[in-house]
Amino acid sequence: METRQPSLKEALRSAIWARTLTPEQMARVEATTFEVFVPKGGFVCRKGEVVDNWVGIIAGMVKMNNFSPSGKSVTFTGVPPGGWFGEGSLLKDEHRKYDAMALRDSRIARMPAETFHWLLESSLPFTRFLLMQLNERLGQFIGMVENERLLDPDTRVARCLASLFNSHLYPGIERLVQISQEEVGLLSGASRGRANQALQVLERQGLLRVDYGGIRILDLEGLRRFQAG
């Protein structure tokens, strides 16, 4: 049975940053934020474009990545439902530095830059949230560089899955992660076949179970500590 997806209003009201907004602030957020549908493989946003929205994931999965002139792709991170991104470019008023693509059919929330900056000026808790968001994102990217340069594919897959469980960046994600083996490969920089091998290794270690419709995490701390021998 399919899980019921939240409405745009429900998704906004359940966001961490929305919990401390005043009724006036929440009303403006709800009045101005809109939803778009992006099919699997479609662009949520493009590198080089003017950044005029803060972007949230209502349903689906999005990856942030870039392509080299030769066509090689590097993936920075995956963003599951409940995650928001793009605050850095909005704060610096710069063009977007990366692409964001839908790994599956996705519902996307877009908060206009005007509303974003109004919240920044009128809500101290929202400003604190953004400081934490930027700090967590920095830590995530530092870990990603380390994983890419130092770790083997099995360990990269383990850390990739563990990174989705960040209570600040991706609140509300459940232990059954609705993610395919192909998507795991795309996010961890491995082929689908190699990602499948890594998942089998992690499953034998008792850290996860590959279920119908996703991957069930059995030992999150074990995934974070996992290091292939």
Task: Briefly say what this structure is.
Helix content is 43%, strand content 22%. The protein has helices at 8-14, 23-32, 87-92, 113-122, 124-150, 153-163, 181-188, 192-204, 220-225; strands at 34-38, 43-45, 53-59, 62-67, 73-79, 84-85, 99-102, 106-112, 176-177, 208-211, 214-217. The strands form three sheets. It has a four-stranded antiparallel sheet with strand order 1-8-3-6. The chain has a four-stranded antiparallel sheet with strand order 2-7-4-5. The protein has a three-stranded antiparallel sheet with strand order 9-11-10.
Question: How would the blueprint of this fold be written?
Answer:
Layout: H1 8-14, H2 23-32, E1 34-38, E2 43-45, E3 53-59, E4 62-67, E5 73-79, E6 84-85, H3 87-92, E7 99-102, E8 106-112, H4 113-122, H5 124-150, H6 153-163, E9 176-177, H7 181-188, H8 192-204, E10 208-211, E11 214-217, H9 220-225
Antiparallel strand pairs: 1-8, 2-7, 3-6, 3-8, 4-5, 4-7, 9-11, 10-11
Helix pairs in contact: 5-6, 6-7, 6-8, 7-8
